[in-house]
Every structure is written in structure tokens, then in C-alpha cells.
Design goal:
With about 400 residues, the protein is of the alpha+beta class. About 15% of the residues lie in helices and about 35% in strands. The chain is built from 4 helices and 27 strands.
Length: about 400
Amino acid sequence: MGMEVNFEQILHEGKLFRDVNAFVVAHLRDNNLTQAASAVASATMTPLDVEVPPNRLLDLVSKGLAVEKGEPIKGMSASILFDSGSSVPASYGSIPVPRTSVIDFRQNVARCARFSPDGRYVATGSADTSIKLFEVAKIKQMMLPETKDGPVRPVIRTFYDHMQDTHNVRSVSFHPSGDYLLAVFGKVIGRDDGVIWQLGKVWVLLVVFGRSGWAGAVLGTDHPIPHLYDINTFKCYLSANTDDIAANAAINQIRYSSTGGMYVTASKDGAIRLWDGVSGKCVRPIVGAHGAEATSGMFTKDHRFVLSCGKDSTVKLWEVGTGRLVKQYVGATHTHLRCQAVFTDTEEFILSIDEPRNEIVVWDALTAQEVTRLRSNHTGPPRWIEHSPIEPVFLSCGTDRSIRFWK
């Protein structure tokens, strides 16, 4: 019971922090104090265009002062003003509950996963070189009682390799437009329902969805420089300003921003680097971001911050404009696997993996306080975690030939 009270108290305090920050930013902005509003918004990770009723801060301050003086408040009971004992609103955040749907892989170990930008699909890659495309709505149906229509089959398409001497799928990713799915393999692969070309020590499968037209694909390999390709011509563009990049800076992960205007790389030299999505130039290197390999990096939806994870057992939040370290999230040990750190769909919480304890750790993004831990129920720690961009659901991929869908 005490843990439940503490849990709700942490959530409630985080909600108060966000509300106060939003009120201050909106008050400064609406009173034409734009520079001050921008500074507070940047420092508190609050959107500058946050929607708050006019004069909300002044209204609450006046009511609070009235309560302090014992004066009556019109239209509101004083007992509910910032009542620390009140229950957490049902709509607050997207804390996942330990309710899962397990999908067994009969081929081999699931190594990676990625949701489409609209959250309708999720692609997974496995050690047998297969890529499975799931429909999220059907996965959620699997969590409901059996219907008269029979069992639900969430896999809507599978892409297979037909050669025996191949390596596993190292990464899958959707283009920000949602029209393209790319998968990176460890060696030579066959061809099935897609386009394949070689890049250094890896091979790439490009599966095309939707409309045609120009689109770029940015790919990371054992080479320290990301390769930007025109998908239609396969012409490659490389950055010219790479003097600061060490030879041991092979790329562990690369991810686009939501618009495709920038991408971030997490490298084996511990650095996080930000790149221009059109010119391919490195616009901000954060050298020494982690004390060991940097294993993941992702943008917030407004592109103002980057979340990174490393084998030094830290998760960090960086400001894109300055390269400044904003927050650090500790308490999860990850030193062996290519661990991920991801935001929930509302970006109020952050998830990562604690390898020794085989748990998924959840932090409050704003306060950096650990909120809860979830037993993964995989055999061994999950090697990948991925959250939906539109709703409070996520996937964990384990070495036990299964993925788990959390809702």
C-alpha cells in the first residue's frame, strides 16, 4: 500500500511541475515576453505554443492568495487547489501496465522493432533474416477474448531471405513519410518483395509502400560517416566536414527526426552527432556523450531535444540547439546489449532496460525520477524496446524467440 501511495505521489508531483511550467510559459508568451518565455520553455522542456486558458496563472495565484487569507473563492472549493492528496487523473501520462500479449517467433531471436510514423504498423527483424510486418490493431485484438471469427493473425506480411549463409537483421526503420521500410542485414541476402543494394559490410533491403517520388534513406554502418542515399537513384551523398570523427566511431544507431530534416547517430566512440537531413553535414557533435558506446538516440517530436543511451548505464537528454546536457536518468544497468532508451507517446516518461534485473525501468522525463519497474518476463533481458508514437503501447524483443506487446 505504501508503494502505491508513493507511486501516485510521484506522478502527482510530476503533473504539478508540468502544469506550473506551462502556466509560466503561457503567461510570459501572452504578455509579449517572448525571450523569457523561450528561455523557460527550453529549460523546462515545455512547448512554447502550449495551450493554456488566458490569464490562467493570474487566476490561480489570486485564488491561492485568497485561500491563504481565508477569503471565499467564487466558483471553486479551496480544498481542491493543488491538493497533494487528490487522486491522479486517469488521463495523466502513459504509464504502461504489466499486461502483455506474447507473439512467439518460430524462426529465431527477435533483434529489433520499429513502429510506423502513424502507429498503425510495427516491423520486427530477427536472427533468421526474416522481417515481419504487424498490424497493431490486430495485435490489440489478441488481448481480447476469443471471437467467433477465430484466431487473430496480426502478421500481414513477411519478408524472407532464401540464402542459408546470411546474418541477422540488425535494424529496421520506417522513413518519416511512412512510405518506405528499410532493413539492414549483416551479410549477403536474397531478394524478396523489395529492392536490395550493398553498402560496405552490410546489405540493405528497401521495401516500398505508398506513393513514389524522391525520398532519401540515411544508413549507418561500421564506417563512421552516415551514408545518405537517393532512394530512386541509389546515389550516395557523404558529409565533407568529418575531421572530428574518429576511425573507431562506427555507428550503432541512426534515426530521423519526425520531419526528416535532421538525423542523429549514436556511435561506438561514445559520441552523439546531429546531422542535417538535406546536406548530410554534421551540425552538432556531442563528443564524449557517454563513457562507453552510445547505443541509441532519438529526437523529441518538436526536435528540440535528443534522448541517448549508452553502455555506461546512463540515459541522457540533450538540447539540440546548444548540445547542453539537460537531464540524466540513472538506475538501469546496461553494459552488454545494444540497449535502447525511448520516450512514451506523450514524452512524459522514458523507458529503458535494466539487464541484470531483467526489468523495464520507467522514469519521469521532467524530474528524472524513477517511477516504476516492470518485470520483462523474457528469458534473459530484452535486447530491444520500442514505443508507439501515438498511443501508450510498446514492444520488447527478447532472446527467447518472442516479442511482448505492452498495453
